[in-house]
Write a structure and sequence with these properties.
This protein is α/β, with parallel strands linked by helices and 476 residues long. The chain has helices at 6-12, 47-52, 80-91, 108-121, 149-161, 173-177, 199-202, 205-218, 235-244, 291-306, 311-317, 348-361, 380-391, 407-414, 427-437, 466-474; strands at 19-21, 31-34, 57-61, 74-77, 98-103, 126-130, 133-134, 166-170, 186-191, 220-229, 250-252, 259-267, 270-277, 280-287, 329-333, 339-343, 366-370, 394-397, 422-423, 443-447, 454-457, 460-463. Strand 2 (31-34), helix 2 and strand 3 (57-61) form a beta-alpha-beta unit. Helix 8 (205-218) packs across helix 9 (235-244). The longest helix is centred in the middle third of the chain and has 16 residues, at 291-306. 46% of the residues are buried.
């Protein structure tokens, strides 16, 4: 029978434990080392290195056959990723009272940001953990959307030490599938949408959806609240799966008079939105806000209403809400009035949404600059090329984060079915060229990297900031 409670077993064996690790580069003396077989690397190959660095015990999958380890104890477990998460949260304990999770293809960062803003407006101590890093701790924006369980457990412990009461965590499909949340139970869980992304990892949309829905099936507290945006692709699959597992959930829908947007009125730079929450109509106002972000804000507001926050007060907060970094963020204007925006859109749906949004305010030509990341879902490349061609007047294809792939080849795959897209290697040169093309009242969307401050080429992260570079060309 495999040992599951690693810390109890270590205590029985009188083993000193200074921490938990699954990466020998970060392992220190007396860490328990989890040797996890991964998709890119195999932790079993680093057992000897872990022993050399002073690991106090090794945890391996139950199927591990070799018996060459004599120096220190070895514990065999089933579902090693679950056990890593459970052990991490048991060692790095926290007493954060309320936990909120947001999952979905697009909008996770924005919804988490808006929940954090609203909680702050209610004078609650809260923090986000996700794509933009940790708003009150150590996790940087260079980390994964959902940190590994050791990092996440440490971060939650740090938030607790700062008396944070609400932790809002972005739950990626990778993080959910890899059981990084095994010890957490959320008080509020939100699904923003589902569309094409990460099929290089999940292989098909069914597996991708299933991984997302694990948030509601496995990690939402039995007394917790769940909110699903049903105005999304694949909703029939989502509904069928949730009903199969008898999950209680609330729906936000444009057609609903219980939770839904009744109408949107735009008056110059002010947008007025009438929203049904618990079947009662509320009026929200926003200043200089894109429609897709307003919908994300409403998702955040409805979510908080489910756990007891006052809807009327939230209507007073909306007009003061700041913009999310790298999400339809205004970089600046040319002297002729043309505007340049930075956006993180890196999926087909996100690119389409930001272009449709820009069309609402664009009186001249709409220009988009974008690329696709290397070592990622290749199927979306020609789809994004097609979207740029359909919804923009001028489309410029350039390099994103090519990683280990040939950047020229990535661009050719985007251009596969295009007739008018412009192919420009070197992202800096492409930004300069696209800004030079802008005439009076044109709009440029620089898409794909948003808040990122780097470009990944081979195994190097080189300094690169779309916002900073765009501003430098706008001031010349």
């Amino acid at each position: 029978m495999p040992t599951q409670d690693i810390l109890s077993k270590a205590n029985q064996d009188n083993i000193s434990v200074s921490g938990i690790s699954f990466d020998t580069r970060r392992l220190v003396k007396d860490n328990i080392f989890f040797a996890i077989p991964g998709s890119k690397d195999n932790g079993l190959n680093y057992i000897k290195a872990a022993i050399t660095k002073g690991a106090s015990a090794i945890v391996v999958p139950y199927t591990f056959k070799k018996n060459f380890i004599k120096e220190i104890p070895i514990y065999k477990v089933r579902k090693i990723r679950n056990v890593l998460s459970e052990t991490s949260f048991k060692f790095y304990t926290n007493n954060v009272r309320y936990k909120i999770a947001v999952t979905g293809t697009n909008g996770k960062t924005s919804v988490a940001f808006f929940i954090n803003f609203l909680l702050s407006a209610f004078k609650k101590k809260s923090a986000t953990i996700g794509t933009l890093g940790s708003s009150a701790g150590r996790v940087s924006r260079d980390n994964l959307t959902t940190p590994d369980p050791v990092t996440l457990a440490k971060e939650m412990k740090l938030l607790d030490s700062k008396n944070i009461d609400y932790a809002i965590i972005e739950a990626s499909s990778h993080g959910l599938h890899q059981k990084r949340f095994s010890s957490l139970k959320f008080d509020l869980s939100i699904l923003t949408n589902i569309s094409h992304d990460h099929l290089d990892y999940h292989k098909n949309i069914s597996h991708y959806i299933s991984s997302k829905l694990d948030l509601f099936k496995l990690y939402t507290h039995h007394k917790g609240k769940s909110l699903i945006n049903c105005d999304t692709k694949h909703f029939k699959k989502i509904k069928s799966s949730l009903n199969k597992y008898k999950i209680n959930y609330n729906l936000l829908s444009n057609s609903s008079k219980k939770y839904g947007i009744k109408n949107i009125i735009i008056k110059k730079n002010i947008t007025i939105v009438d929203v049904f929450i618990k079947s009662k109509l509320y009026k929200f106002k926003f200043k200089d806000f894109p429609i897709f972000q307003i919908k994300n804000f409403i998702l955040a507001a409805v979510g908080l209403s489910l756990i007891g926050f006052d809807e009327k007060k939230m209507t007073r907060f909306s007009i003061k809400c700041p913009h999310v970094t790298g999400r339809m963020e205004l970089a600046g204007k040319k002297k002729n009035g043309a505007r340049v925006y930075i956006d993180f859109a890196h999926t087909p749906d996100a690119l389409k949404n930001v272009l449709l949004e820009a069309k609402l305010i664009c009186k001249g030509q709409l220009v988009v600059l974008f690329g696709c990341g290397g070592n990622r879902d290749k199927k979306k490349r020609p789809i994004m090329g097609n979207i740029a061609e359909r919804f923009a007047d001028i489309g410029i294809v350039t390099d994103d984060n090519p990683r280990d792939e040939n950047a020229d080849k990535i661009r050719q795959e985007i251009l596969k079915n295009s007739q008018k897209l412009i192919n420009l290697k070197n992202r800096r040169t492409a930004i300069k060229k696209s800004i030079s093309l802008l005439k009076c009242e044109d709009i440029l969307i620089i898409a794909g990297k948003g808040h990122e401050k780097y470009q990944i080429i081979k195994d190097k992260r080189l300094p690169f900031d779309d916002l900073k570079i765009a501003k430098s060309f706008l001031t010349r």
